[in-house]
Design brief:
There is one protein chain. This protein is of the alpha/beta class. The chain has a single domain, classed as P-loop containing nucleotide triphosphate hydrolases (Rossmann fold, 3-Layer(aba) Sandwich), CATH 3.40.50.300. The chain is 54% helix and 15% strand. The chain has an eight-stranded mixed beta sheet, sandwiched between helices. Helix 3 crosses helix 5, helix 5 crosses helix 6 and helix 6 packs parallel to helix 8. Bound molecules: adenosine-5'-triphosphate and magnesium ion. Magnesium ion (MG) binds next to helix 1. The site of magnesium ion has 5 residues, from helix 1.
């Protein structure tokens, strides 16, 4: 199973590219699942769907999921609450539910919940040839994708702290201190066990994200701000070890005749196109023109796919 992730600034065409690439792969005989992890979903709109809850079959071998973010947050908090209650049974004097309530509004919960969904979806759909993740705009995408890496370094530190606590307990016990029923060894400590479980989950995700079978595709418009944002995303993803091999330059204006009002726009576009070829020289770069009609619905997305043909080849090759 291969994973493809579309990343880029808001409105540049991530969802359109994800949906269209999925159709192209499906038309070549592969089974494809396209997943929107964007809280502001429009994957269903791009495909002109009416019914869109849960997994929706659009064509044979082509399904989509729009992750319900509120539901994902609720599920994530339930799991956390269960884990805390079973790990800290001896602290039942604390009102854990109160902390869970606070946690539900804590910064980062949405990112955690979406990363949990990412994991669940790849585990539950490993029979698919391709899972394509349509991501939210760059900032949130990078926060979601960095999470397992940040989480791992926190967990390593927490494990060190927990080891130090257990060491102290053992020392106190050795000098005859009465500690009651608290664990003193790593093997019998539920907190250490939970930290190890969480570490395993992070390593699973890091393994998936940095695998040869996973690639990000940058989507951008030939304009300065989307380009700067794509460069930053490329640097960040590369520093995490996530491969970025393809680049879609979308909404390229191709004018049949000279339009004076668009002169500076066209100049900016030319400058950006040259810069893109320089900065992303090791990637497969495809250009999609600004289309007269928004590419919505299966047929229009198939026409869009003609422009990203070499990206389809890249995905199949790698
Ligand atoms: N080549 C194109 N020509 C004309 N319109 C396009 C083209 N590509 C995409 N669009 C239109 O641009 C709008 C934004 O596209 P899309 O939703 O795919 O972008 P996005 O990057 O996913 O946006 P968001 O960040 O809001 O999720 C849509 O209305 C889409 O139909
Ligand atoms: Mg989108």
């Amino acid at each position: 199973m291969k994973i493809i992730i579309t990343v880029g600034k808001g409105g540049v065409g991530k969802t359109t590219t994800a949906a269209s690439l999925g159709i192209a792969l499906r038309d070549r005989g592969y089974s494809v699942l396209v997943v929107s992890l964007d809280p502001a979903h429009n994957l269903g709109d791009v495909l002109n769907l009416k019914s869109r809850s849960g997994k929706v079959k659009v064509l044979d071998n082509y399904e989509i999921i729009e992750v319900d973010v509120d539901e994902a947050v609720r599920k994530y908090l339930d799991e956390v609450s269960l884990m805390i209650k079973s790990t800290f049974k001896h602290l039942s004097v604390l009102n854990i539910d109160k902390y869970i309530d606070i946690l539900s509004n804590a910064p980062g919960v949405e990112e955690h919940a979406l990363m949990s969904e990412f994991k669940r979806i790849i585990e539950e759909n490993d029979d698919k040839d391709f899972i394509i993740f349509d991501m939210p705009p760059t900032g949130l995408s990078l926060r979601i994708l960095s999470l397992p890496f940040i989480h791992k370094s926190w967990l390593m530190e927490l494990k060190n702290l927990r080891k130090a606590i257990l060491d102290r307990r053992r020392m106190l016990k050795n000098i005859g201190e009465e500690l009651g029923d608290v664990p003193i060894d790593e093997s019998s400590d539920p907190v250490m066990r939970e930290l190890d479980n969480m570490l395993k989950e992070c390593e699973f995700l890091i393994g998936k994200l940095t695998s040869r079978d996973t690639m990000c595709i940058l989507v951008l418009a030939p304009e300065t701000l989307p380009l700067l944002e794509a460069e930053r995303a490329f640097r960040k993803l590369s520093s995490l070890g996530i491969s970025v091999r393809g680049c879609v330059v979308n909404k390229v204006l191709k004018l049949r005749e000279h339009v004076p009002e668009l002169k500076s726009k066209i100049e900016e576009q030319e400058r950006c196109l040259n810069e893109i070829k320089k900065v992303f020289k090791d990637m497969t770069i495809v250009e999609v023109p600004f289309l007269e009609q928004e590419p919505r619905g299966v047929d229009a997305l198939r026409r869009y796919a003609n422009y990203i043909d070499s990206l389809v080849d890249l995905v199949l090759r790698s």
